[in-house]
């Protein structure tokens, strides 16, 4: 088997392992973040309007403007959900008589939840898989080798809170995925000169991905700018014609893919650059500073990283090694600009989250506003693995295993539960609940089996099929990595 075939086969197995892991769960569908996104998709499909008036009592994440109610989220996730939701809606109405999205009390129904699961499978879940595969391919390009690249992809996909947020109809994972894929496209242009057609296609894709991340989450804009600056810096020595065509294609892609946000803003607020966060109904803190942002608070930075059971390093201990991993990447020839960019995006999100009035993210396991930065932490880990000795690799595998178990407990128990912030949620809630078999989030099929959609407890046996997929996939990948490649 050639090296190219090994890379492709491993990518295919990673896709299956990760996609099954994400489709296996659904976080509480009746949460204030997911419901308005689905409500917007349904309102556009059924009524041709962005207003979600009839869903206004199902969520607090709403804005009111000129007597109408709207989702206060950027529209990207809702727009991506429209094709799959429209098809699923048509199927349901054809085969079920009592289809409705709200019951007589105004609560969402089983059909609304099914639509949300379908939307999540074809948006958040699939974007998270593609993000992990981008880490895998980018790490190979950076010199991590197959084993290091696999570690980087699986660390992001199964050993960080990205796993949990891949199973909720939230925008953090897709936004972060678009940013990393946009960065990968820019990096590819800088290290692999090619034909005119390839320059145009990849340049367009880079601009489209970076702008679409903003359509999904408005807070992606500075991160997109960081990556764009990296691209311009690397392109400073290019031949003029190549620079012009790449810039033109990139700007075109950005304008085309940011236009849905501008049109949506104009339809709702009568301004291309209007934001519904200005008109949020319940969160008055959004009127402080700039939409709730003031300045980075050192005490919050410490809490976001180290607070017992809440901080990022508690939920993903393997990320403790990332500063050293960035140092190792920095020492590689020609990797300084890459290292600075990969580090600048996480730094931006840390400062952003520590500046935000609602920094806890409400019902959230860990600092969810920092989730888009997670894919940028993993390629350096992959590169570090390539140059690590036996003891360091053993330590990395141990941290990966611990992080995987924590992520499994979190995704099984809950990513959207409101916790007491004064206790260690891992030791007080999540781990005890997981050990007792409280698998509240396993899986969409529970919808067909439970009379009540409010409480589930399916036990550890519900995870056996997932374990089988992960074990078989992992064993096959190890076998492929160890198998010598045949020269082309």
The SS-based structural class is: mainly alpha
Q: Round the Cα radius of gyration to an integer and report it.
A: 22 Å
Largest sheet: 2 strands, antiparallel
Report how far apart the termini are. Answer: 9 Å
Tell me what the structure shows:
With 488 residues, this protein is mostly helical. It has one domain (3-482). Helices cover 62% and strands 2% of the residues. The chain is built from 19 helices and 2 strands. The chain has helices at residues 3-23, 34-47, 76-95, 110-141, 145-158, 162-165, 172-191, 196-216, 221-234, 240-269, 298-306, 312-315, 322-330, 336-354, 374-386, 390-413, 425-435, 446-449, 464-482; strands at residues 62-65, 68-71. Strands 1-2 form a two-stranded antiparallel sheet. Helix 4 (110-141) packs parallel to helix 7, helix 4 packs parallel to helix 15 (374-386) and helix 7 (172-191) packs antiparallel against helix 8 (196-216). The protein is globular, with a radius of gyration of 22 Å. Mean pLDDT is 91; it is low at 444-457.
Give me the secondary-structure topology.
Elements lengths: L2 H21 L10 H14 L14 E4 L2 E4 L4 H20 L14 H32 L3 H14 L3 H4 L6 H20 L4 H21 L4 H14 L5 H30 L28 H9 L5 H4 L6 H9 L5 H19 L19 H13 L3 H24 L11 H11 L10 H4 L14 H19 L6
Antiparallel strand pairs: 1-2
């Amino acid at each position: 088997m050639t090296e190219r075939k090994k890379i492709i086969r491993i990518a295919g197995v990673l896709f299956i392992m990760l996609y099954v892991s994400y489709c296996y769960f659904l976080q509480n569908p009746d949460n204030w973040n997911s419901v308005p996104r689905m409500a917007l998709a349904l309102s556009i499909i059924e009524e041709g309007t962005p207003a979600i008036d009839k869903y206004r009592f199902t969520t607090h994440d709403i804005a009111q403007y000129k007597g109408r109610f709207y989702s206060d989220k950027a529209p990207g996730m809702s727009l991506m959900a429209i094709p799959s939701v429209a098809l699923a809606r048509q199927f349901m109405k054809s085969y079920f008589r009592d289809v409705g999205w709200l019951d007589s009390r105004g609560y969402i129904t089983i059909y609304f939840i099914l639509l949300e699961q379908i939307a999540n499978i074809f948006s958040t879940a699939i974007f998270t898989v593609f993000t992990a595969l981008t880490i895998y391919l980018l790490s190979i390009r950076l010199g991590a080798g197959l084993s290091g690249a696999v570690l980087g992809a699986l660390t992001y996909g199964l050993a960080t809170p990205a796993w949990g947020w891949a199973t909720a109809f939230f925008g953090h994972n897709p936004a972060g995925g678009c940013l990393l894929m946009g960065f990968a496209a820019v990096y590819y242009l800088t290290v692999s000169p090619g034909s005119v057609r390839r320059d145009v296609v990849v340049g367009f894709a880079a601009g489209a991905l970076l702008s679409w991340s903003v359509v999904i989450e408005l807070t992606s804009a500075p991160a997109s700018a960081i990556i764009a600056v990296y691209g311009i810096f690397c392109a400073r020595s290019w031949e003029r014609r190549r620079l012009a065509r790449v810039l033109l294609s990139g700007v075109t892609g950005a304008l085309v893919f940011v236009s849905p946000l501008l049109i949506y803003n104009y339809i709702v607020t009568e301004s291309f650059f209007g934001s519904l966060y200005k008109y949020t109904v319940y969160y008055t803190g959004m009127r402080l500073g700039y939409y709730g942002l003031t300045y980075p608070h050192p005490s919050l930075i410490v809490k976001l990283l180290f607070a017992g059971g809440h901080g990022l390093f508690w939920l993903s201990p393997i990320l403790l090694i990332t500063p050293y991993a960035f140092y190792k990447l920095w020492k590689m020839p020609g990797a300084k600009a890459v290292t600075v960019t990969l580090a600048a995006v996480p730094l931006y999100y840390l400062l952003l989250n520590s500046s935000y009035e609602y920094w806890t993210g409400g019902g959230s396991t860990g600092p969810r506003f920092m989730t888009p930065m997670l894919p940028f932490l993993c390629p350096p880990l992959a590169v570090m693995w390539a140059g690590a000795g036996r003891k360091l690799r053993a330590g990395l595998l141990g941290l990966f295993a611990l992080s995987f178990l924590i992520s499994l407990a979190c995704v099984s128990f809950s990513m959207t539960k409101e916790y007491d912030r004064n206790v260690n949620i891992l030791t007080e809630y999540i781990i005890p609940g997981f050990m007792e078999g409280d698998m509240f989030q396993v899986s969409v099929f529970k919808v067909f089996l439970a009379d009540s959609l409010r409480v589930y407890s399916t036990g550890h046996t519900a995870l056996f099929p997932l374990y089988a997929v992960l074990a078989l996939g992992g064993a096959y990948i190890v076998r492929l990595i160890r198998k010598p490649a045949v020269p082309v």
